[in-house]
Design a protein that fits this description.
Elements: H1 2-19, H2 26-44
């Protein structure tokens, strides 16, 4: 589920970059949070999927 959320955020982030439309940087904060969560799970040795 975490990977699905990360993929959705990446797609929305890229869409925002392409259309110059971001909700005051909120999507960027969510993207960074998703990447940090994935990295923490990898470092802890848990399954990401």
């Amino acid at each position: 589920m975490l990977v699905t959320i990360a993929v959705v955020l990446i797609v929305l982030w890229l869409l925002g970059l392409l259309t110059s439309y971001t909700i005051s940087g909120f999507i960027h904060i969510l993207l960074v949070a998703a990447i940090i969560l994935v990295l923490v799970r990898i470092i802890q040795g848990r399954k990401v999927v």
